[in-house]
Design a protein that fits this description.
Largest sheet: 7 strands, antiparallel
Number of strands: 7
Number of helices: 3
Oligomer: single chain
Distance between the termini: 21 Å
Shape: globular
Order of helices and strands: EHEEEEHHEE
Low-confidence stretches: none
Number of domains: 1
Radius of gyration: 14 Å
Mean pLDDT: 94
Structural class: alpha+beta
């Protein structure tokens, strides 16, 4: 589970907007999943979205408040159908993923990271 992180910008907003409006736009794009996890920082918001009645369908999204961009976060692993709430908790607790989320500029596609349980995020060269 987890491994090399991949990121993809999904939505970008030209004008300033409320956090509720930004989340609403993401939920509409993702076809109304449930919010199963939410971690907020002054610079970013991490949400974990899950398709209702499919607990292994979760996906990770980070909203960069400065650039007003939603970023999809995925990993080169075997979780092709998505992630569970337990995976989300592992990412936060055991992988120290919030170190990256609180500095969302580190989530650019040009920055490659290795994310593994029991280790801090490691930058790949």
């Amino acid at each position: 589970m987890f491994g090399e992180m991949r990121t993809e910008p999904l939505l970008w907003f030209r004008a300033s907007l409320s956090l509720d409006a930004a989340v609403g736009a993401l939920l509409k794009l993702a076809e109304s999943p449930e919010i199963a996890g939410w971690v907020q920082f002054p610079s970013a918001l991490l949400v974990f979205l899950v398709v209702p009645k499919d607990p292994a369908s979760g996906a990770f999204y980070v909203f960069n408040r400065r650039t007003r961009t939603w970023i999809w976060v995925d990993f080169k692993d075997q979780a092709y159908g998505g992630y569970t709430l337990a995976d989300f908790r592992c990412l936060l607790r055991d992988c120290r993923f919030l170190r990256l989320v609180e500095r969302p500029s580190l989530l650019r596609r040009s920055h490659r990271w290795l994310i593994q349980p029991g280790m801090a995020p490691e930058r790949l060269v």
